[in-house]
Amino acid sequence: MNKTMLEIINSNPESRNFSSDHNNPLTIINTMKLITGLHHVTAITGNAQENIDFYTGVLGLRLVKKTVNFDYSDVYHFYFGDEYGTPGTIMTTFPYGKDLINGRHGKGMLNTTAFSVSIDALDYWMDRLEQFNIPFKQPQQRFSDEVFIYLEDFDGLGLELVFNDKDERKGYYNGYIPKDYAIKGIHHVEIWQDDYQRTAALLTTQMDHKVIKETPDRLRLGTDNMPGKYVDLLSTPSALKGLAGRGTVHHVAFATPDAVSQLEMVKRLNAYGLEHTEVKDRKYFTSVYFKEPGGVLFEIATSGPGFDVDEEAAFLGEDLQLPPQFEKRRERLTEVLPVINYPTEKFR
């Protein structure tokens, strides 16, 4: 009888990582931990106001930053998360407008971003989604300790709410969703591949992940066994190839402590033979981007300096903040960017 990958790894302490079939067949297994978990997920979306309504109104996340796309300044870049925009709680969006062509979920893509909530919050969230006419699938169980419901935002972006008792993060109290039921942060992300072995090899040999759990159709990796640290890989050879567009994920970012650890991570990428960008200053963190072997865009993002570099913590997300290079265009951008309003009483 064939053993599962988890059984093999647990039974053989000297084989705790996937071997790599990348450019270097003698890939060194790194021991210094540079990746601490997930940092954020960035999605391509449509209407800006609907983004605000869904993520702050329905889900109750905090808008911690209202800025613009570094590569296309006529488009907002919204950051949603906990009170301070802590790495591992952040969902970000590029709302390009309703005219943007719809994307397609499929293989070679991150298809689902899962949020973590208390195990006692299931009934509350089912009632809340029904209250605001958000379709969702009935609760399902994954592994032995995880209940979840699948839903989509107004653009068709795949989301889950995962009800569990492992998450000690507080989440953001918005004044109307009970504190005990608030979203605590990202739980995991789900990537579909023809064959996830190469992606698993990268994550385990270079990015400090280990096998957490496994079923016949799902491999869960993580930097630690706790929400906010997980990447789920699914082998979906019969699925159509994913197409970028409205309602799809642009990239997933992994957290590294600082510029020093980020540089060490770049050295690993170089040794592994992966092309990557230069370090990019994103004002609130610095970033390096690269495509993993299965085609999904990965980012290595520093944990700081954080979102309070240009706004006090109490006022995060209230004003339009621009990268320095776009400050001279502020007047034009305020005319071009759509006016947005914060959710009203209807979401209470």
From TrEMBL:
CDD domains: PcpA_C_like. Residues 37-164, 185-303 form the VOC domain. Signal peptide: none annotated. It comes from the Bacteria. Pfam families: Glyoxalase. InterPro entries: Extradiol_RC_dioxygenase, Glyas_Bleomycin-R_OHBP_Dase, Glyas_Fos-R_dOase_dom, VOC_core. This is Glyoxalase family protein. The lineage of its organism: Bacteria, Pseudomonadati, Bacteroidota, Flavobacteriia, Flavobacteriales.
